[in-house]
Amino acid sequence: MPRIYATATEFEEYTGESPAPADITVRLRRASAFLDSQVFRLCAYSVDDTGMPTDPLVLAAFADACCAQVEWGIDVGDVTGGAGVGWGSVEIGSAKLSRSVTATSGDEAPGRQVAPSVWDALRSPDLTPDLLVIGAVATC
Fold first, then answer.
1. I need a labelling partner for 136 at 20 to 30 A (CA). Which of 42, 47, 70, 88 fits?
2. Residue at 23 is within a domain
């Protein structure tokens, strides 16, 4: 079962917006999976049997990070990571943009970028190195 680091209530508290979007649970699940693959897997922190952080400060930071990622998707208008994928050329007035359609993947889309506020949540001075180390990669 995938880990989901934040709740609808936490999203509402983080953003100050209520109610949360109707599909907030799906968005938080996707943000959690995205951050697991892009950020959290590269960090060192204590976990329980389900893989959830055991320290309440780390867990709160992960919740804030997920909320920040969802908010970013809403702000940039790309909640799935698919915006702008596949366009070959676009013209607006005299401005012309083009790129190869075959070389384009969803990784370049705004919704597939780590939100800047994610790093703010994870770089809190309360998260001392004994609780969370960002960028730690280890092998057994």
1. 70
2. yes
Termini Cα distance of the chain: 24
- Those residues whose C-beta lies under 8 Å from the C-beta of residue 16, and which sit 6 or more positions away, are none
Say yes or no to pLDDT of 81 above 80: no
Give the pLDDT band (50/70/90) at residue 84. Answer: low
Q: How many whole angstroms separate alpha carbon 99 and alpha carbon 42?
A: 32
pLDDT number for residue 13? 97
* Residue 108 CB neighbour total at 10 angstroms: 14
Q: What pTM does this model have?
A: 0.79
Q: Is there a domain that residue 116 lies in?
A: yes
Is pLDDT of 86 > 80?
no
135 in any annotated domain: no
Q: Which residue has the tokens 């893989």?
A: 51
CA–CA gap between residue 15 and residue 86 (Å, rounded): 31
